[in-house]
Structures are given as structure tokens and as C-alpha cells.
Amino acid sequence: MAKENRLTSAQQRVYNWIVDYIKRMNMSPTLAEIAEGLGYRHVSSMIVHLTALTKKGFIKRHPNIARGIELIRHKVNTIPIYGFVPAGVPFLSDENIVDNFELRRYISAPANVFGLYVRGDSMRDAALYEGDLLFVDPTKEPQNGEIIVAMVNGDPTVKRYYRENGTITLKPENTRYAPIIVNAHSEQFRCIGTVIGLIRRIDKRRIDQILAV
Predict the structure, then answer these.
(1) I need a labelling partner for 41 at 20 to 30 A (CA). Which of 54, 89, 175, 189 fits?
(2) Which of 1, 25, 33, 3 is nearest to 14 (CA)?
(3) Of the candidates 71, 90, 123, which is a domain's last residue?
């Protein structure tokens, strides 16, 4: 390693702490958590070291994301988690990542699987509740009866998928909501991916903070 890219003892301590945190917690730490964990009285004192780690290519920082630290040299194979976004905004873009999850340590999953938090109660009777974390495979062709994430008229939605005679029905699992019916070839419809897994929400306060963004 080039001399200019070597870490000082203080930088190495910060880096090691971040790596250990991600291994234990399956997500990256916030700046406040790093400062508290390493005994810094002020976040600004620790940011100097994060800036150095970024310049030396050990980490990447995603702005405007609370847990936006990504390991580069010590790559932890995480799955990006996206939040629902306003109509017209590209869905699977870096600025829509709200968290990361180190799922691949425990199961085998396709390389481009992503996570998505459930919002609303339209799939309540399928036991999908607001704040649950879905894992979505964008390469899996949906079969009738499977749950998918789709874009309809620019809005993301999670519904049960049925296709028959060129017509797609996106069925909610809550009688308060009507099915969405679209032409299979309509430019207003796009299947984002098929739901392949679920983690029930645990930290309600954390989920509420994310959904409020």
C-alpha cells in the first residue's frame, strides 16, 4: 500500500470500530454513534478521520443518509434498502437508499436484490404491515399470485400480481382498497421486482423515523 494511503493509528481505530459495528449490527453506524462509541465529545472531531478514510479510499460516504457509510477496502456485502419516493423520481437510485442490510451473511440472494419498507395497510390481510422490510428480486419473473413491487403511473405500489389475456390485475389484500387493472403492455406499468422475503419490523421508532422522511 502506498505510504500516503496508510492509516494513522487514530484513523485505523475509527475504521476498525466501523467495521466491527457493521459486522455486529448489520448496518452502518451514524456519525453520532461513532463519536459516542469512540469517546469523542464532538462529532466534528471524529469527522476529520472520516474525511481522511474517504480520501484514502477506505470508505465512501453517501450524503443526506443517516447510515450512509459504505466500506470499500473491507467490503461487507450488504443489500440496499430503498424508501418509497415521490412520483417521477427514479426509484432505484442512490439518493433513495435509506439504509443497508447485511443479509448475505446468512442467506444466498441474487446480486441485485434490494430491500423496501412497507408503507400503508393495503396488504394487511397478507400479513404485510407498515414498517415491515421486504426483500425484492428485480430479475425474477412474477407468477400469478405472487407479491410484486410495481410502478403504476409513476407511483410505487406493493400488490399481489395476476396476469390474464394481456391484462394485469394488482390485487390489494385489504377490502378497503380496489384492485388496480392495467394493460400488460402499457407504458404506465412497470414491474420493479418480485418479493422473495420479509423481515417483520422490530424497532418501531426507527421505522417511523424512516417513513416520516
Answers:
(1) 54
(2) 33
(3) 71
Which CATH number do you get for residue 128? Answer: 2.10.109.10
Q: Are residues 132 and 196 in the same domain?
A: yes
Range of the domain at 32: 3-71
Instruction: Evaluate the CA torsion angle 134, 95, 210, 48 in order and state its sign.
Output: positive
Q: Which pTM was predicted?
A: 0.59
What is the Cα–Cα distance from 151 to 189, expressed in whole angstroms?
A: 6
| 174, three cell numbers | 385489504
Total of domains in the chain: 2
Residue of 122 and 203 predicted with greater confidence: 122
Q: Which long-range contacts (CB under 8 A, 24 or more apart) does 160-165 make?
A: 160/123, 160/126, 161/191, 161/194
201 class by beta-carbon count within 10 Å (0-12 exposed, 13-18 middle, 19+ buried): middle
Catalytic positions are 122, 159
CATH number at residue 56: 1.10.10.10
Residue 206 makes CB contacts below 8 A (sequence gap 6+) with none
Which range of 100-104, 136-140, 206-210 scores highest in mean pLDDT? It is: 136-140
